[in-house]
């Protein structure tokens, strides 16, 4: 069974076996990453949590490969502060778990100077989780740690704490360090979110270095603020395709990160900015994102945006992608797809939706959503065919939605409502 299948099925025992026994470093590293990513699934399974944490601790201490050990520490982070502290306690010989928070922060701050880089990495990660401002100075000093794995996790910890003091030091890392650390520094600046941090990311988004522009544009999607929208919209016209596509991903991500009290304002701002950008730089990336992304929040927002920014040139392709999305496993994504389709009437959309409704081999949820859209855009042909369909179908759910659509089309039907 592949690692992908083990991840999909949350096969913890086999993943631990790969982590402990595989001779391939890439497989061990990936197994650690997957185990970390599945931390929230452990409580839903019967697999003992300690039977995952203990092998991760052993891997973080003893694996022959630097990146495998680093991945194991990051995985322990996903299992919570107590898992990190168990690792730190075993390596340092100090009891970190049963002390007051302020004392714990002191112990971890001392761990930043440990000889073993894995202990420095874990100490930085733990300090980021504790979130005490009084350790920021200690962390900033470790931004110059000789081990890049430590610098990366120090930058991440500073972003978690969110204090504004490290902005200059993080800005320096953004310009001078290796790629992976630059990314973490940019994310930390976005998480800190002060005017100075935002200004630094905006400046870098206009840098000559294509890699720097992409990093800044990627990080701006985490801000959830109106201020980032204009910068990202401008980046949709960047000369580099990778920057343009990253800007689109960030705009979609920004919709997810927006605070609830600013969500409507940010959505209006994004739609307004996208309407002024060349459609090829907006609509095709959105279609690609909806077709290829595995991130639920991204797909929801891409489906929502397509109904509001798609031009005549891309209408048919957007319609086809949205029709396919009607059967999405995520109910909200499929609802957004249906709503967007109702805003993109034209061409052969009505006929394609009728064919979907009448195809008994297609997903029932998709057929329900298609009937909803037909109730919005359908004409006489829809009224006739849906009338015959509700007489034939054996599905109560489809019949109910069919009557609801007919009520909107002037035929005999029930009062309309939301999706059945």
Automatic annotation (TrEMBL):
* The keyword Cell cycle is annotated on this UniProt entry: no
**A GO MF label:** lyase activity
Show the Pfam families listed in the entry.
HEAT_2, HEAT_PBS
Which domain of life does the UniProt lineage start with?
A: Archaea
Instruction: Name the InterPro entries for this protein.
Output: ARM-like, ARM-type_fold, PBS_lyase_HEAT
What is the protein name stated in its UniProt record? HEAT repeat-containing protein
Q: Which UniProt keywords apply?
A: Lyase
Q: Which organism is it from?
A: Natronobacterium gregoryi (strain ATCC 43098 / DSM 3393 / CCM 3738 / CIP 104747 / IAM 13177 / JCM 8860 / NBRC 102187 / NCIMB 2189 / SP2)
């Amino acid at each position: 069974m592949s690692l992908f299948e083990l991840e999909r099925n949350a096969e913890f025992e086999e993943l631990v076996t790969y982590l402990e026994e595989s001779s391939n470093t890439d497989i061990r590293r990936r197994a650690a990453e997957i185990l970390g990513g599945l931390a929230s699934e452990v409580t839903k399974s019967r697999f003992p949590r300690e039977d995952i944490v203990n092998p991760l601790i052993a891997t973080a201490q003893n694996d022959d490969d630097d990146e495998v050990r680093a991945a194991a520490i990051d995985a322990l982070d996903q299992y919570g502060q107590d898992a990190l502290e168990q690792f730190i306690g075993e390596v340092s010989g100090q009891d970190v778990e049963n002390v007051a928070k302020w004392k714990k922060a002191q112990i971890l701050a001392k761990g930043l100077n440990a000889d073993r880089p894995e202990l420095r990495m874990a100490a930085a990660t733990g300090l980021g989780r504790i979130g005490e401002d009084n350790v920021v100075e200690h962390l900033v000093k470790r931004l110059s740690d000789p081990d890049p794995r430590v610098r990366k996790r120090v930058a991440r910890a500073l972003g978690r704490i969110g204090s504004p003091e490290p902005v200059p030091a993080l800005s320096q890392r953004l310009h001078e360090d290796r790629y992976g650390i630059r990314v973490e520094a940019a994310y930390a600046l976005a998480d800190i979110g002060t005017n100075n941090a935002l200004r630094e990311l905006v400046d870098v988004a206009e840098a000559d270095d294509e890699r720097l522009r992409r990093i800044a544009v990627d990080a701006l999607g985490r801000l959830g603020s109106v201020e980032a929208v204009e910068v990202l919209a401008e980046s949709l016209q960047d000369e580099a395709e990778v920057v343009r596509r990253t800007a689109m991903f960030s705009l979609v991500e920004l919709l997810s990160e927006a605070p609830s009290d600013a969500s409507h304002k940010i959505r209006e701002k994004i739609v307004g900015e996208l309407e002024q950008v060349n459609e090829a730089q907006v609509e095709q990336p959105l279609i690609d994102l909806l077709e290829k992304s595995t991130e639920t929040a991204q797909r929801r927002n891409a489906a929502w945006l397509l109904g509001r920014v798609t031009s005549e040139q891309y209408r048919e392709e957007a319609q086809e992608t949205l029709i396919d999305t009607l059967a999405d496993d995520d109910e909200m994504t499929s609802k957004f797809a249906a709503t967007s389709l109702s805003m993109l009437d034209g061409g052969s959309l009505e006929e394609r939706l009728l064919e979907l409704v009448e195809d008994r081999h297609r997903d029932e949820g998709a057929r329900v959503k298609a009937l909803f859209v037909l109730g919005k855009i359908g004409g006489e042909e829809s009224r006739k065919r849906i009338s015959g369909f509700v007489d034939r179908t054996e599905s109560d759910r489809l019949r109910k939605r069919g009557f609801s659509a007919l009520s909107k089309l002037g035929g005999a039907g029930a009062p309309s409502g939301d999706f059945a």
